[in-house]
Amino acid sequence: MPEGPEIRRAADRLGKLLVDRPLIEVWFAFPELQRSAATLVGQRIRAVDSWGKALLTRFEDGRVLYSHNQLYGRWMLHARDLPPNTTRSLRLRLTTETHAASLYSASDISLHDDAAALDEHPFLRRLGPDLLTHRVTPEDVTARLLTPRFRRRGLGGLLLDQHCYAGIGNYLRSEMLFFAGLLPQRRPESLAEDELQRLGEVMVGTMAQAFREAGVTNRPAWREALQQAGLPRRVWRHAVFDRAGESCHACGAFIEKHSVASRRLYLCPGCQR
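Structure for DNA-(apurinic or apyrimidinic site) lyase, as requested:
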C-alpha cells in the first residue's frame, strides 16, 4: 500500500495536470456524487494536497473533493480522448480540454462544501499532521512525541499510528528507527535529549528523501555500488527494510525481521541498541 511520500507525489502529478485548467467534464460512479458533477464543470482546481494517504482536490469555489486510494485505488493520467486500457473499475474522472485524471478501484470519495467541513470528516479528523504537507519541523516532532497522549508508547507501534503523524507506513517505520539508532520498544519519555532530537530529524529527513527519490530511503554511498552492479531496485532501495539476513551497510551485522504491532519490522542489532 502506498505511503505518505507516494501519495504526495501523486498529488503533485495531478496538480501539474489539473491546476488552473477549467474542467470541461466531471464524472462520478456514485449517484449521490454524480448529481453534483455538472456544478463542477467550468470550475478551476486551485490545489491538490495530500494528508496521509488521502488526496484533497480544492476547487476555486471553495469545495473540496476527498479521495482515498485504500488498498487498490489508483489515479491514472492520460490524454482526454485516450483512456487507459485497464480492467479496473472507473470511480471518478476529471477532464480538462486536453487531459484527464481518472481514479480507478477506490470507493472512499466525497465532496465537501468548504475546507471547514473537513474538520468533521470521519477519517481526517482523527489524523495527526502530515510530515510533508504540513511543513512539520524536527522540533514539532519532538514536542508532539512528548505529549501525554504519546510519550509512554513504544516507538514501534507509535510510528504507525496515524493519529500521531499521518503517512508513515511500514517501510518508513523500519528505516526511521534504524537511522535514529533506536529499538522499537523504546518510548519517547525514555529517550535522552540527543536521541529525541535525532529521531525528530530522522523522521522529517527520511520522509523528505522518500518523497524526493520516489520511495528510496537508502543512503547514496551505500547503494551506489549495488546500482552500478546492475542489481534491481528492491535490492538497493532501503537500508534495512525487507533485508532480513543481509549485512548492515553500517556495521556488518545481519538484519533481523520482527513483528511489531502485527506488522513486519526490520532492524540492525548492531546499530539499534
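Strands lie at 25-28, 45-51, 54-59, 64-68, 74-79, 90-95, 99-104, 108-112, 256-260, 263-267.
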